[in-house]
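This entry is set out below.
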Amino acid sequence: MKDLKHLLYFENLLMEANNELVQKGIEDGNKCIGVTCENIPEPLLNIPGAFSVRLRAPRTGSMDMSTYYLTNFLCEYSRALLERAMEGGYNFTDCMITPDGCTMMNRCIENMELLKTMDKENYFYEYLEIPMKGDDNGLNLYVVQCRNHIIKPLKEKFGLDTSDEALRKAVEEHNKVCELIRAIGDFRKEDNPRITGYEFHILTMATYVCPKYLLIDKLAETLEELKTREPDYKKNYRARVLVVGSEVDDIDAIRLIEESGAYVCCDRFCYGSLPGRNPIELNDEEDVLLQICRHYLNSGQCPRYMDTPKMKNRREYVNALAKEYKADGIIYQQMKFCDPWAYERMMGTHALRDQYHYPVLSVDRPYAVGTSGQLRTRVQAFVESIEIKKLQGGDK
């Protein structure tokens, strides 16, 4: 297929944490808020005068120093972030807001603070306690924590407008991005898709690491371009797969899977589009903060939520996505030493195989996949197993 006009531009944005659009957002007078987890409601960080950046460590190399502080039993994502922070790689941010999604990320951010990695006057850190159940008590906790650790400090320390009107503007901008990403992602449902999983992953990741208002025009132009884009091949993938699991911000991960013969037709991972790019519906009767928190609580698929309804819903959600996007199989992945997703991957793999009857490849992986020969071999073998099952006339 003809290359997307802005694909190289989006790829280049992902080469550095302090990318071109982050610099432009700061030049425009906005405060840059570093964040590490999908459990922080994005619109609260993207009110007028501020924008959020989900932290990444592109082109990660040695993690010797961060391993000294965190040990080699913590996930590589937390170690990669601390290593980059110690190198001064996140000094473009003005504050850091993080939830207690896992103890590993807590230790990472606490070490950033203790080691004074952010060489900037009046820099501050905020830590949120987020719920472990998706019930009314959990929602009440969520609202209180977001008010005390996001709304209050942004207003008091930066003088930002945190009114309901400002929050509604942030939700409106957030929804524009979501609607564009979801419309682009719908092309993946085609039997002969006009966008690759790799291309879609690039576009989606950019929306997490750049000021959203600077991306909307190019996303809209890309959507229009895709409406008339014609695939110049006849179904050159061998199987359609849904990728599920923990954080995936390595642009090589999805590319490696697709080079191994699988088309990534759908994503359900941190930094992904589902459910992370579902628009937020607001009414005119209730408090805006309450509605935003309810959306994140109800739609969240993080394994931190440990009540039975949420755990059951996570498998049902994956099954629904697999049907909607016509997946032949599921790749259930987690980063090495990620405790929450390790348990979830084990339980989810068995449920999706035994209850929903999908072929499932269950893998743990490094933070930076690169050209991992082991992962490539496993994906290739998985694709072949799906093909054999099809030839034998088996279901899915």
